[in-house]
Structure of Rhodopsin domain-containing protein:
Amino acid sequence: MSTATWAPAVGPGKTLVAFTAVFLQLPAIAVFLRLWARQIMRKRLEFNDYSLITGAILAITNSGITLGAVYNGGVGRHITEIMTEHPLLSQPLMKMTLALALTWTLANTAVKLSVLHLYYCIFPLPRFRWACYVVMGLTVAYCLSNCLQNLLLCRPIQYNWDKTINGKCSPSYYPYVSSASINLGIDFIVVFLPMPMLWGLQLNLRKKLSLSFIFGVGLLICALSAIRIHVIATMDYNDFSYSVVPDGIYSVLEPCLGVANACFPVIQPVISKLNNGWHSTTSGTRRTTDRYNDSNNRGYVGRFRTDISDMRGFQLMDQDNKSQNSELYPLQVTRQFDIENRRAKNHDEW
């Protein structure tokens, strides 16, 4: 019997460590690119930025606790092995399990609120903004209920990790499955909420598909949530430390990829800057370099310029006076980059 308070990763625990070590870097990179894009556009930070920064910190914290659960909690080992060979790991395992449930919930909530507030800023229509408020309220309500559920599953709370005291725990299977299912439902709502607005824009099919792809990458998160529900439903709770590894992987992936997905629509200025810089450095003629420099001064940022967060890639204008009988405000789109491209082209020809 070992008296050590940690143990090396073994078996499935090594897989969990590998996934976590790779993906915990993703939120930091995504937030860095987002803040860089804000700096390029000289745009002050908004609630959606602060919320996403909070979500990234919580996602990284969640990943760090996951690593701790492997080395200090014995995740990846059978529960019989922990109790007989590493008994000092059992209490840290249950403490970190509770901490992971809370950080996972808070991280996903912060990411969803960031995305919804971004929708709110992009589409100024009153009905759509009310819809964003409703989904925000639903998201916050889910967060509070899920945190309370995890905190009250065992009473007193210390009974989660110390079975020597008087207490009791409710069955965890149904609360976990229902929580994951509700989370999946909210994910679907967040992904599809802006789609009617996007397809109502006066754009050709290619541009609508491009914007739908940008906003629809969140379907990957929905797929992870759906797989996680299956994992939770088939988990062996009698051998929790061993069978929890797949759930641990998806619980790390979901918030980390969620942060990256929320940053994807607003990092276009960074991509354009890097693209223009690459073309400028690889151009073999001064004419090409001058053309890119001049077009940069004019605000030209590439063929597909859609800085969604700043609303400079397209403008939504209220045309209420053109629709007297419709309850929804028709949308007219002005592609700013089309105008700027023509100006740049005329200047080059001159």
User: Anything to note?
Assistant: The two ends are 84 Å apart (CA to CA). Residues 288-350 have pLDDT under 50 and may be disordered.
